[in-house]
Amino acid sequence: MAMTESWEGECSVVEREATAVRQGLKTALEAGFQKIEVEVDCLTLYYALRKKKKELSAYGLIMKDIWYLCSFCQEVGFSFTKRNGNKVAHALAKYSLENEGMLVWLEEAPTIVMDCVFADID
Predict the structure, then answer these.
(1) CA atoms of 33 and 16, how far apart (whole Å)
(2) In a 10 Å sphere around its CB, with 0-12 CB exposed, 13-18 middle and 19+ buried, how is residue 54 labelled?
(3) How far apart are CA 100 and CA 97, in angstroms?
(4) String of DSSP letters for 10-75
(5) Per-residue pLDDT tens for 16-49?
(6) CA atoms within 13 Å, Cβ hemisphere of 102
(7) Is the dihedral of CA 22, 24, 28, 31 positive or negative?
């Protein structure tokens, strides 16, 4: 599954990344996925996801939502990938800046990221 969603507002990078994880989990669960692997390129977010550290902040509330959504998964894993290894995610993020609303692709990679997907396979 792949998705993009445009949204407005200012927040920190880690809050934006966490919001994307939350929406991705929600969309994957709505699509019927029960075994989910979440790949992030933000090390701060990765450690927070692994440690389940609670914070009293907007970021902490987003993290709480993420763990709640995880409780509906049969399996959920978190992995960290450096930015240069996460080109598909960055192509989708760039695409979301140019388009409004949410787009979801199931079972097939969107054509806008095919070059990145093929590069990952090699």
Answers:
(1) 23
(2) exposed
(3) 8
(4) ---HHHHHHHHHHHHHHHHHHTT--EEEEEES-HHHHHHHHHT---SSHHHHHHHHHHHHHTT-SE
(5) 889 889 999 999 999 999 999 988 888 999 998 8
(6) 8
(7) positive
State the amino acid at position 2 in one-letter form: A
Cα→Cα distances 22→17, 64, 122, Å: 9, 10, 30
Looking up tokens 């990679």 gives: 109
At 53-99, the pLDDT tens digits run: 777 788 889 999 999 999 999 999 998 988 777 777 777 777 777 77
Report the alpha-carbon distance of residue 95 to residue 56 in Å, rounded: 32
pTM here is 0.81
105 contact partners, CB below 8 Å, separation of at least 6: 1, 2, 3
